[in-house]
Amino acid sequence: MRAVVVALGKIGLPIATKIALAGHEVTGTDIDSRVVDRVNRALEPFPGEAGLQDALERAVGEGRLRATTDTTAAVAEGADLIIAVPPLVVDDQARPDFRVLDSVVADIARGLRPGAVVSVETTLPVGTTRERIAPAMSELSGLEGERDFFTVHSPERVYSGRIFRDLDTYPKLVGGLSPEGERRAEELYGQFLDAEIRGMGSAEAAELTKLAETTYRDVNIALANEFARFADRTGIDIGKVIDAANSQPFSHVHRPGIAVGGHCIPVYPRFLLAGDPEARLPAAAREINQGMPAYAVELLEELLPDGLAGARVLILGVSYRGGVKEPAFSGAFGVARELERRGARPLASDPLYEPEELRALGFEPWDGGELDAAIVQADHAEYSRLTSSDLSGVRAIVDGRGVIDPARWTTSGVRVRRIGAPAE
Ligand SMILES: NC(=O)c1ccc[n+]([C@@H]2O[C@H](COP(=O)([O-])OP(=O)(O)OC[C@H]3O[C@@H](n4cnc5c(N)ncnc54)[C@H](O)[C@@H]3O)[C@@H](O)[C@H]2O)c1
Predict the structure, then answer these.
(1) pLDDT tens, 112-154?
(2) How far is the C-alpha of 195 from the C-alpha of 233, rounded, in Å?
(3) C-alpha span between 419 and 33 (Å, rounded)
(4) For residue 145, what are the β-bridge partners?
(5) C-beta of residue 127 within 8 angstroms of C-beta of residue 204
(6) Which tens digits make up the pLDDT trace of 285-297?
(7) What does the pLDDT look like over 387-405, one tens digit per residue?
(8) CATH no., domain 2-200
């Protein structure tokens, strides 16, 4: 099999190496020449993906993977399978901007040869494959879709950091625009994946599956957050309650927390809602989860006898989650906004970010000076070892992720609150 993988990002590059290591010939393409250059030199362009450097060395070393910035030329060399996984950019309301996707589709279409299967793995609003991608591909290639070439959607369900494991574990979902296209795509994916390949019967079903699994998580977390807020009003420890509830097989309640961030979970429920504006639960869940950063600030204000006005408050963690350098839809933004609204001065620190990077994101970096209070926003592993002596002057701390050890703080008189747990 000959394959082209378009967009060698955190998702595309591991897939390209995976195909190459299964013995196939792969060309990876990316608009960023630095990425292309590094791939051709067998150097991973980003850290943190388990097994990627080793896989890249083998794939490039064996001559099965090469990279180029010219997508059209790579496709025109004649590929059986073209996998495209460009980012779908969204604004702060998660409304998609299709320009990058459209330009990738145009680049592929201009090189398209009869017989190819084009699989778009980017998460999409339902209907995008059939109504946007396939017609553009036909128009720009001059070929007839589902006769001369085939378009499918195959959502990427992996988790950054453990992609190779996930690729071999989770069923690979494939949804075509015709039975023949879907059958061909299933057969091609089966040539390099060990996981079950599951035909979904339509591109729309495949698109909706990814939106369903991510919306499920958003709704579930929103429910946990509502439980936690009730627990806070009644002095119940919600962690204990959730563990107990989940001890029978019908309950899978997630954990409450200060924010739902990242590229996926806050965004894909909005894609779903764009197609199904009458869906009430996903809309309510979004509202509840978006309200959590402000709720954490409210808890903090209750701990400070003089309130928040004029207080210097440290936001611990700008990343949307621990261990990952990614600020997309991070709760840190909402926390900072709410602190400012209540008259406090938000400061930020994050072990993964340099002070100038924090500034570029709009935060004032903490210079190590006196503080009044702190809020744990990201569950960086380092925070479990924090003590009150690390944050001089702090009188109150809200742990939005349940990561600090309250005993290390309360002994020196610091007031501690965790979301969903009685006051310490
Ligand atoms: N990262 C995840 O955890 C994850 C998980 C599941 C699904 N996804 C899906 O994968 C998509 C891509 O995510 P990612 O994390 O790999 O993104 P990324 O930002 O790591 O990489 C995107 C790559 O696309 C390249 N690119 C941009 N425009 C291009 C163009 N016109 N032609 C060729 N290349 C171009 C960029 O240079 C970059 O290397 C997401 O939009 C999402 O739909 C991501």
Answers:
(1) 999 999 999 999 999 999 999 999 999 999 999 999 999 999 9
(2) 46
(3) 45
(4) 149
(5) yes
(6) 999 999 999 999 9
(7) 999 999 999 999 999 999 9
(8) 3.40.50.720
**Residue 134 and residue 130: Cα distance in Å, rounded?**
5
CA of 330 to the centre of ligand 1 (A): 18
CATH number of this structure's domain 202-424, picked from the four choices 3.10.270.10, 2.20.28.20, 3.40.50.720, 2.10.260.10: 3.40.50.720
Helix (H, G, I), strand (E, B) or coil at 123: coil
Say which of 264, 300, 308, 391 is annotated catalytic: 264
- Mean local confidence (pLDDT), 66-87: 97
For ligand 1, whether the C-beta of 156 sits within 6 Å is yes
Global pTM?
A: 0.94
Say how far apart CA 196 and CA 233 lie, in whole Å.
46
Does ligand 1 lie within 6 Å of residue 87's CB atom? yes
Instruction: Answer whether 28's CB lies under 8 Å from 73's CB.
Output: no
Write down the domain spans for the chain. 2-200, 202-424
